[in-house]
């Protein structure tokens, strides 16, 4: 069984992106980023308890979000690139469909 590769040669990118695969990719990326925030907030709360300091959950969550913003860009680069690629593919397909429709409405074939 041979593996299809897109024009840029990356085997991990799908050859054809649909709206459904785009939604799945965005959900996966969002859940990964959210999980990172939860893990960081938990680490802050339990790390502080380990040294005898009480950190409110809201404060830990805010710091978790602030730390997760740049960290998630680095850790989840492949997911982010997949989402960007699929957005570009879906957008290109929609633009092509719109252009085809415009051509048919003008009477061109």
Detailed description of the structure:
- The protein has 109 residues and is mostly helical.
- The protein contains three helices and no strands.
- The longest helix has 32 residues, at 19-50.
- 12% of the residues are buried.
- Mean pLDDT is 87; it is low at 1-9.
Outline of this structure?
The chain has 109 residues and is mainly alpha-helical.
In helices, the fraction of residues equals over 70%
**Which outline best applies?**
rod-shaped
Number of structurally distinct domains: 1
Please tally the helical runs, counting DSSP H or I stretches of 4 or more residues. Answer: 3
| Low-confidence sequence ranges | 1-9
Major sheet, described briefly? none
Strand percent estimate = under 5%
Give the arrangement of secondary structure elements.
Blueprint: H1 19-50, H2 57-75, H3 77-105
Helix pairs in contact: 1-2, 1-3
Distinctive features:
109 residues; mainly alpha
């Amino acid at each position: 069984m041979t593996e299809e590769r897109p024009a840029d040669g990356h085997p991990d990118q799908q050859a054809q992106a649909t709206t459904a695969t785009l939604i799945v990719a965005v959900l996966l990326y969002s859940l990964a980023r959210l999980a990172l925030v939860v893990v960081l907030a938990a680490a802050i709360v339990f790390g502080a308890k380990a040294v005898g300091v009480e950190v409110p959950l809201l404060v830990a969550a805010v710091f978790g979000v602030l730390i997760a913003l740049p960290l998630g860009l680095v850790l989840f680069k492949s997911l982010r690139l997949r989402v960007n690629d699929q957005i570009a593919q879906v957008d290109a397909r929609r633009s092509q469909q719109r252009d085809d429709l415009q051509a048919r409405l003008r009477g061109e074939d």
